[in-house]
Amino acid sequence: MRKDRYGRVIEDISSTDSQAAHNLALSIDERLQALVYRELNNAVAFNKAESGSAVLVDVNTGEVLAMANSPSYNPNNFAGTAKDTMRNRAITDVFEPGSTVKPMVVMTALQRGIVNENTVLNTVPYRINGHEIKDVARYSELT
């Protein structure tokens, strides 16, 4: 029983006998995790970005092989670390589907010969069935 400072019962806490747990298999690959973490940090620095997230997934099984965020922190010593830095952006933040699908579209277009590495793309907004399709930033052409 849980009581307040006057001895009044405020909660009746019952206990449950322990039970055998299920097996837990992690899919994170230590080598891939280190590689993804290093490359993400390099990409954030190269692009002068405030932050970045990367998730490496096995396309055949859906298993997460690596997940990284930048900036990051040491979970063994997080004294003085800002709460925002401890957030796992790959899980908690919302991303526009276009941002995650664009690399797949580009790879498919390259693979099928629709475009090549020198192709200039017109990114001016256009309309489909009365809906404007546009990028978040206004660029007339991209390579």
Describe this entry's structure for a reader:
The mean pLDDT is 88. The chain has a domain of 69 residues: 2-Layer Sandwich (Beta-Lactamase). The protein is built from four helices and eight strands; from the N terminus they run E-E-H-E-E-H-H-H-E-E-E-E. With 143 residues, the protein is an alpha+beta fold. The chain has a two-stranded antiparallel sheet with strand order 1-2. Strands 3-4 form a two-stranded antiparallel ribbon. Strands 5-8 form a two-stranded antiparallel sheet.
Average predicted confidence as pLDDT:
88
Q: Globular, elongated, flat, extended or rod-shaped: what is the shape?
A: elongated
| CA-CA gap between termini | 68 Å
> So, CATH architecture of the domain at 25-93?
2-Layer Sandwich
Beta-strand content bin = 15-25%
List keywords for this structure.
143 residues, glycosyltransferase, two-stranded antiparallel sheet, alpha+beta, Beta-Lactamase, 20% strand
